[in-house]
Inverse folding.
């Protein structure tokens, strides 16, 4: 596979591949250790063998075994991978005295079978573990390991793992695949379409695919290997429907509730997996022996640290965890046994909390001066409830949606300067607070309540919380989207056009330091495209509809709920 195509793929190993492409195994490992600032190797790689491992339906999966030098048996790490990145990581683990198994998941690279995300990972993972526990070179202490989809394959089988599996290390992942495909009923092109095109050779860009309507035709035109599963995803927007409530989705979604081993979880403040990771962590039966590390940055990187620094920090943490749980070593006094480990600053400073730290208080800001909200910062975010006032209206044309700029629901962009062009659009309402002279820390879930109406049969509304700095930059903190249909109690009952309806946006937890001299901005619109599909203003299947109906939207008022703590003066950046 061309390196240029691999570099388009999600994951934390991208920079490493670029540096190490074409090098031999020994040189590659030494370069990797130096690049990632890892501890000195403990041994050498003894052997690397490959076999085609048959699953229960006789489909054979390419399975590579890396053994360290010396006499076994050894503690062992299992990695199941659709990307082929992790062969390099396996060779590293072997040099730290761990046997390592690297397997191409079904339908990928050298493995047989059909590639269809998620659906085979539970059975294939169980079959692979049953084979692994019978191997004479493993010593009865096994861990599973991986990030993103390579983390999901662990959640898929975590409730059925044999007792030899002593721990799971799952980064940037959870088991609820619907939450990756949809946000409040809106398809997430920034995740799924981007990922789908990255898994194929010479695929069109995410923007090209998202721009074709109806979407069912776009999928057929641009995708090949992933066409069927992509069509299935876009054809089933309702989580309550039969598709998302069939096996194995239901089993995988609930599997973490029956985990029997400690888990090392990790995520990022601007990663799309983060919100559900909080739920998964708190629901673990082994919560009291598990650790959740949250770093700065996004799913694919960070503006505050190089890719090498991110991968290195994760691998050092993982090696400490493996030593503790597979070898019984306690030489990592700086690694907590459980709770939350938060990266607090760009320099990597960490703060440990036994439980998720509660906000000191919840501050409320109320939407005011509605009639001036059609210009940047024209509306006000007031500390007191606004008096009754006439609603403000705007037109939403799905053929000319508000463009996306940064945010958590896509790979790699995260926090960006929003400028003044987006809030100046005619289909955006903009509200600003007063200046926070002493700064303020947000710690928890920001919530926005709006009362709105539309003359369309169904439509969407978006919110974006931002920090406006004293130097004029505007940084996005959190964004969200929902629809009138999603807010309705009924999935089928017709919506009343022009009727006022209450919308609630519960955004993922955040740790964010609003600097002294900054203010908050709230932008309200009806699209955030192409990260989310542009709602067609029709109560019909979005993927089969050409967006052509223009809607008149009304805003009657709203409230922002901010989980706050006093600002820490030593924290100068997010």
């Amino acid at each position: 596979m061309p390196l240029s195509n691999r570099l388009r793929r999600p994951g934390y190993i991208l920079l490493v591949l670029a540096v190490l492409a074409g090098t031999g195994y020994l040189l590659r490992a030494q370069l990797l250790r130096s690049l990632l600032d890892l501890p000195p190797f403990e041994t050498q790689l003894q052997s690397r063998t490959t076999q085609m491992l048959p699953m229960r339906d006789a489909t054979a999966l390419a399975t590579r075994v890396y053994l360290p030098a010396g006499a076994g048996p050894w503690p062992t790490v299992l990695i199941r991978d659709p990307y082929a990145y992790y062969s390099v990581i396996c060779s590293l683990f072997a040099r730290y005295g761990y046997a390592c198994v690297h397997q191409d998941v079904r339908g990928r690279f050298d493995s047989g079978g059909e590639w269809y995300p998620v659906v085979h990972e539970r059975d294939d993972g169980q079959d692979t573990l049953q084979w692994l526990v019978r191997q004479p070179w493993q010593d009865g202490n096994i861990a599973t390991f991986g990030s993103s989809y390579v983390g999901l394959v662990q959640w898929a089988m975590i409730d059925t793992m044999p007792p030899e599996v002593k721990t799971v290390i799952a980064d940037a992942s959870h088991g609820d695949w619907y939450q990756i495909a949809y946000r409040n009923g809106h398809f997430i092109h920034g995740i799924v379409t981007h990922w789908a095109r990255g898994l194929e050779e010479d695929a069109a860009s995410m923007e090209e695919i998202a721009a074709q309507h109806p979407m069912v035709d776009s999928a057929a035109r641009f995708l090949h290997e992933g066409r069927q599963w992509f069509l299935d995803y876009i054809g089933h927007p309702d989580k309550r429907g039969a598709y998302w409530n069939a096996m194995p989705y239901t089993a995988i979604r609930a599997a973490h509730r029956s985990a029997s081993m400690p888990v090392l979880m990790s995520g990022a403040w601007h990663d799309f997996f983060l919100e559900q990771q909080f739920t998964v962590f708190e629901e673990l039966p082994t919560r009291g022996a598990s650790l959740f590390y949250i770093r700065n940055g996004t799913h694919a990187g960070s503006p505050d640290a190089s890719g090498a620094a991110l991968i290195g920090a994760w691998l050092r943490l993982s090696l400490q965890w493996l030593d503790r749980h597979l070898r019984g070593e306690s030489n990592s006094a700086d690694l907590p046994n459980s709770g939350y480990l938060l990266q607090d600053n760009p320099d990597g400073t960490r703060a440990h909390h036994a439980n998720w730290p509660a906000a000191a208080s919840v501050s409320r800001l109320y939407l005011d001066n509605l009639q001036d909200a059609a210009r940047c910062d024209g509306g006000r975010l007031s500390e007191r409830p606004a008096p009754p006032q006439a609603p403000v209206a705007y037109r939403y044309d799905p053929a000319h949606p508000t463009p996306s700029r940064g945010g958590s629901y896509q790979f790699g962009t995260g926090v960006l300067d929003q400028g003044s062009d987006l809030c100046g659009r005619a289909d955006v309402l903009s509200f600003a607070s007063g200046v926070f002279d002493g700064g303020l820390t947000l710690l928890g879930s920001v919530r926005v309540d709006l009362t709105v109406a539309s003359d369309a049969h169904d439509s969407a509304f978006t919110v974006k919380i931002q920090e406006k700095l004293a130097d004029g930059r505007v940084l996005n903190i959190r964004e969200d989207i929902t629809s009138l249909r999603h807010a309705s109690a009924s999935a089928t009952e017709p919506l009343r056009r022009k009727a006022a309806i209450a919308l609630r946006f519960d955004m993922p937890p955040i740790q964010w330091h609003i600097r002294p001299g900054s203010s908050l901005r709230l932008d309200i619109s009806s699209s955030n495209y192409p990260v989310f599909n542009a709602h067609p203003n029709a109560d019909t299947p979005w993927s089969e509809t050409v967006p052509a109906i223009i809607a008149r939207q009304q805003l009657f008022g709203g409230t922002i709920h901010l989980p706050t703590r006093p600002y820490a003066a030593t924290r100068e950046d997010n």
Notes: The first strand starts at residue 45 and ends at 54. Residues 1-22, 569-574 have pLDDT under 50 and may be disordered. The first helix runs from residue 3 to 6. The chain has two domains: 3-185+237-353, 361-565.
